[in-house]
Structure formats: structure tokens, C-alpha cells
Amino acid sequence: MFLFRSTDSLDAAKGSQDFYREHDVSCQLLSPDEVGEAEPVLVRRYAGALLFKDTAAVREPAWVMDAYLALFLAAGGSILRSTVTKLWPSAQGEGVLCANGARLEATDVVVATGARSRSLLAGIYDLPMISERGYALRLSVPPDKVLYRPVYDAAVGVVLSPRPDGIQVSTGTYLTTPDRPTHHMQAELARRNACKILDLPDQPNITVHHGDRPTLPDGLPVVGRMPGRPGLWLATGHQHIGFSTSAGTAELLADLLTGRSPKLDPNPFRPERPEILRGLPF
After folding, report:
1. Res 282 pLDDT > 60
2. Residue 26 half-sphere exposure, CB side, CA atoms within 13 Å?
3. CATH number of the domain that 113 lies in?
4. Which of 116, 186, 208, 238 could bridge 221 with an S-S bond, Cβ 3.0-4.6 Å?
């Protein structure tokens, strides 16, 4: 649900309804009373909201990742955890050098290392990637403070999402690189605004997490074989939507790796597309 504090911002949202409908995104404009009925925990009186009706939300993303891992292991997969420092073409196909000195070789290697992909591919492929950094924290809430769906307060740029152990507060983002230090000013403002929105006492001593979302110039990920390296595959640059597009990415990669005709057109995501080869001076 997108929440709007002023009639001006609500009027702008009304104008966007045609765009959403054009792309088969079902949404409904809510009055102030309807906002209160849909989410009673919100103490602020909003001018209105845009409710996206045919959507789903994951209550705890870690549980989904655990389920993926269990399926992978049950299918015969195995996990080797290490820091990778170098990639090189090998007699078998592709080689991987680990920080502990281990050297691994495989017919195919997939680079799916998010915002770290650019540094890992340095000297091999000039990937024009930068990070969109955002922050998240979780507020403790009493049992009667129930949020039924993720809500976005457009005026303060804060997303509130229900979690099993409380409510997650997510901030906006800014452009940076993974090696630069974090700054918690955004998280501090988001926490204060969230407590006001939910009428909670301030919770100042909360652990803040940050995420570096891998972003490319045209806003699309790279999914496919790297030019000149038949055994090296890329699956990175998904910005904020890697979680929800991970299964589709995996299906596309599996089709390409095994020579099947993919159900999804791979051309918009190919690593050699002009928007990527042109690069940007990040």
C-alpha cells in the first residue's frame, strides 16, 4: 500500500492508475477512512492510499532462502563456503582461486556475487556497476500492533513490513560503492518516522543493517554467458528485486547452460548489450 499525506500527492497517484492498469497491475484508490480500516495500526490520518491488490509479500525472507537451500541439497547439491579472489580460464573450463589457497576447476562457473561482481571481474570484464545502498532495522511491537501488509509512506520515504519478530523499517537508497563506509542518518530518520507512524515509543538502540544493491546503467541485470569466456556466466545487477526475480533468473540460466530453448527472451539481459559495453565512469 502506498500512503499519501497530502491531497496533491494523492492526485498525482490518481494519475498513475492508468499506467498501472495499462500493464495489468491491479490497484485501488483508498479514502482516508478506508486506509484506517485496512491498516488500523497506522495512527496518522492519511489523505488516501493506493492499494496494489494482486500482490504477495514474504513475511520472513530468510525462511524462503532456507527452503531453497534445502531443495538444492536434496537434489544432490553441495555447499563450499569460501572467499573467491580470482577467476581464470582453465583446461577444464573455468578456474576459481579461494582466499585459503584452494584452486577449483569446473566446466561452468556462474558469477552471482551482487555488488561485489564488479571487483571480482576486474581485469576480465569492465562491468559498469554501482551500488544503491539502503538501510533496514526491526522495531519491536506489542501483540496488538498488527500490520497486515507492507506499506510505503511516500512523504518520508519509509517502507514498513510485517515480520514474525516485529516490523521492519526500510529506507530509501543512495549511490555508492561497497567499499565506502556506512552512514546511519537515513536509518535514524526512518526509525523516528516509523515510531510516529505506529505510535510507538522511540527505540534508539537497534541494530541497523545495510544492503548494497548491484545496479547497472539501464536498470536491467546481466544474465548470460560472458563474451569470450564460454564457461563463465553472469547473473548479477538485479538492483532491489533480486529476491523476487531469483527463480526466473535461475530458470533462464538453467536453460542457457543446458542448451534448452529459454521460455524468457534472454536478449535484453545479455552481457554484451550496448548499454553495458558502453560503460559509465563510476
Report:
1. no
2. 4
3. 3.50.50.60
4. 238
Q: Would you state the cell numbers that stand for residue 56, as one nine-digit string?
A: 504477495
> Does residue 2 fall inside a structural domain?
yes
Calculate the dihedral angle through the C-alpha atoms of 106, 110, 112, 118, rounding to the nearest 10 degrees: 90
Is 22 within the bounds of a domain? yes
Q: What's the whole-model pTM score?
A: 0.88
Domain count, the chain: 3
> Strand 103-106 vs strand 209-215: parallel, antiparallel, or unpaired?
unpaired
Listed residues 209, 242, 268: the one ending a domain: 209
Alpha helices in the chain (DSSP H): 7-22, 32-38, 61-74, 117-120, 185-198, 242-258, 274-277
What was the pLDDT predicted at 280? 47
Q: Look up the domain containing 15 and give its range.
A: 1-55
Residue indicated by cell numbers 518520508:
156
First vs last Cα of the chain: how many Å apart? 34
Contact present, 136 and 170 (Cβ < 8 Å): yes
Span 183-196, pLDDT tens digits: 999 999 999 999 99
Residue type (1 letter), 186: Q
Mean pLDDT value of segment 97-125: 93
Q: In this predicted structure, what is the pLDDT of residue 278?
A: 59
